[in-house]
Amino acid sequence: HSDARQADRTAAADEAAAARLAERVGAIEGSVGVEYRELVAEITRLRGRVKEIERERSGLLSTDRELRVRLGTLEAQRHTATEQRDQAVLDRDAAAARFRHLWGGWLPADARLDTGTAVPETTTAALETARGVASSLPSVRHEAKDLRAAEARVSDQLRDTEEALAGRADLSFDADEDIRVLTASVDGRRMGIAEFADQVRSERDQARTHLTDAERDLFDRTLTGDTRRQLAARIRQAQELVDTMNRRLEQVRTASRVRVHLQWRMDPRLPPGTREARDLLLRDPAGLGEKERDALHRFFRERIDEAREADTAAGWEHQLLEVLDYTKWHRFVVNLDRDDGQGWRPVTKRVHGALSGGEKAIVLHLPLFAAAAAHYRSAPHAPRLILLDEVFVGVDAVNRGQLLELLAAFDLDLVLTSDHEWCTYAELDGIAIHQLLTGSDDDAVTTVRFTWDGRAFAAADGTGGGTSAGDGDDAAG
Fold first, then answer.
1. What is the SS3 assignment for 209?
2. What residues contact residue 207 under an 8 Å CB cut-off, 6+ apart?
3. Distance in angstroms (rounded) separating the CA atoms of residues 440 and 448
4. 113: left (phi over 0), alpha (psi -120 to 50) or beta
5. Backbone phi, then psi, for 60, in 5-degree steps?
6. 3-state secondary structure (DSSP) of residue 62
7. What stretches of 324-456 show up as alpha helix (H) in DSSP?
8. N or C: which terminus of the chain has fewer CB atoms within 10 Å of its end residue's CB?
9. What's the confidence (pLDDT) of residue 117?
10. Residue 430: which residues within 8 A CB-CB, separation 6 or more?
């Protein structure tokens, strides 16, 4: 109980002390009043503002660091841009100077550019002129390999041109820094290749249009003398030969009514005026008017110039003789008539492919026989040999006789080999036949000779052999 009493006393003392403190606080609060409370509120507000300012300060410091980094980057870029600008100015000035140098040389004329503009003196003028030139050129970008290949082609052409000029001029393909310029030196004067080409072209045109008295005299003697008469005679003879061959070819018609005809006509690939010149040559020169003679002169002059450019003959007279080669004016065309109402038409791959095997062989053989006969006419006393291996394969017996008759009409000497053909046809008036025989025990080969006179078949000893001898393994006649 003593502890409880002690606790009561202590509690009472504490309550008394608290009461005294409360009275004192109340007294203090009463003395401070409203101003104190306002001051506390202001201090609280200022403390909040301080925190806000601290946050703003932290953000500004971060922004400052970023701006410093960006400023350093921009400064480096400014320095680089300044160097690039300075280098660009140097490059621009160098390019303008280079352009002025090239524009004042042979390159613009060689490139067929408008050279009426004077050499620009200032950088601005040079750049404006260069832009104008660039806009007039095709916008094609060439790779380095293409440029090297083009340069190699120019070098090759340069060597060929120097050979053709034969000392007329000295050509040079010299380097000018990053480009190479082609120039020519004529009589000690250096010029661009375009000027040189114009000069050569002008000389060529003058040579073409200028007919000297000697050349005109040679023309007149050629076109009115023996040369013209011989040429006209050769052309007429050639046409007569073609007509004769066609008359003989018309005698051969296959069982399916196929005929072959040769046409000797002017080559359509020849220059204009060739047919007119040919017709004028066939006329009497006394009946030619001045315009017609001039047409002949002009035609042959053009052909001679072509011969000169092709370098196919040495002298002027030789060039004229080459031009007068009438065989080059014409071409042979093989025509075919199938008796189907369509008339004659050229033998093309398609037409020939539509024929039977025998008809194909006939269509190919007939023109060859005619050509061989025409060739042998230049040497009428020489042997007129025609050698055929495995003759007339696929051709029926009727057409074989017609082909042999045609060979006899062309007066050709036939030598043939076959394992089945003995040529015992009524259309053939004579042939010697050798049958090859081999023994069964050795490699020896012997022959047995037979003859055919158009009516009868006989062995070499004069005994009749009959047509059954055609059953031999090999025959030659």
1. helix
2. none
3. 17
4. beta
5. -65, -35
6. helix
7. 349-353, 357-376, 397-409
8. N
9. 67
10. 451, 452, 453, 454
The CA distance from 348 to 330, in Å, is 19
Percent with pLDDT over 90 in the chain? 6
Mean pLDDT of 403-413: 85
pTM check: above 0.85: no
Query: Rounded to an integer, what distance in angstroms lies between the CA atom of residue 222 and that of residue 318?
Result: 12
CA pair distance 149, 383, nearest whole angstrom: 57
Burial of 461 (0-12, 13-18, 19+ CB in 10 A): exposed
Handedness of CA 246, 247, 248, 252 (dihedral sign): positive
pLDDT tens per residue across span 137-191: 777 667 778 777 888 888 888 777 777 776 777 777 777 777 777 788 887 788 8
Give me 452's structure tokens.
């055919």
Contact 289, 274 (CB under 8 A): no
Token digits for 373? Answer: 């006969």
**What order do you get walking across the sheet with 189-192 strand by strand?**
170-176, 179-186, 189-192
Cα 329 to Cα 271: distance, rounded to the nearest angstrom = 10
Distance of alpha carbon 295 from the chain centroid: 35
| Structure confidence at residue 454 as a pLDDT band (50, 70, 90) | confident
SS3 191: strand
Token representation of residue 87: 């280098």
Amino acid of residue 131: R
Answer for the pair 120, 128: CB distance below 8 angstroms, yes or no. Answer: yes
101-139 CB burial, b ≥16 within 10 A, e <16: ebbeebbbbbeebeeeeeebeebeebeebbeebeeeeee
